[in-house]
Design brief:
It comes from Paraburkholderia steynii. By secondary structure, this protein is mainly α. Helices cover about 60% and strands about 0% of the residues. It has helices at about 20, 25-45, 50-70, 75-95, 105-125, 125-140.
């Protein structure tokens, strides 16, 4: 008998995915998350937001971006960049004045992206959502400025 060795990876093999990880998020959890994000958007668009709510919205946009890169969605890149830029402006305004307000022209972008996120939570397997969340955490811990590429980067994320 010959023994074949795996070359390359020194880590242990991946564990098989459980049934729960192969299915989408349960409906109750998806609804709860959706409600929280839509309430955050409502607060931010009326000037009742804060840095935490804006960060929650931006995290949802980033997770939606990562899931779209995995095949769950087809919104145009400029929509994601518009949302990201609007959050940056609102956070700067909030830090300077204490008023955290989302620009009215950015609201439709967030409405579309939250609708995308809602749809993704209803169809994407939980392991894909967990992977997108993990990718976001890596970006947050890195020096990368954004996981959403500029137009000149041809839609490729800056950090996987």
């Amino acid at each position: 008998m010959s023994s074949k060795r795996r070359k390359g990876r020194a880590t242990s093999p991946r564990r098989p995915l459980t049934k729960a990880m192969l299915l989408p998020m349960d409906r109750a959890s998806a609804r709860k998350q959706s409600l929280a994000l839509h309430l955050a958007l409502a607060a931010c668009r009326t000037g009742r937001g804060n840095s935490h709510l804006f960060n929650e919205l931006m995290e949802a946009v980033c997770v939606a971006w990562f899931l779209q890169q995995d095949g769950y969605g087809d919104e145009p890149l400029p929509l994601f960049k518009l949302a990201e830029d609007a959050v940056e402006v609102a956070l700067q305004l909030g830090q300077a004045t204490g008023e955290y307000l989302l620009a009215e022209d950015a609201v439709p972008a967030f409405e579309k992206l939250l609708a995308l996120h809602d749809a993704q939570m209803n169809v994407a397997p939980l392991h894909k959502v967990a992977d997108a969340d993990s990718r976001l955490r890596r970006v947050l811990l890195s020096t990368a400025s954004s996981p959403i590429p500029d137009d000149h980067q041809n839609g490729q994320p800056s950090l996987n």
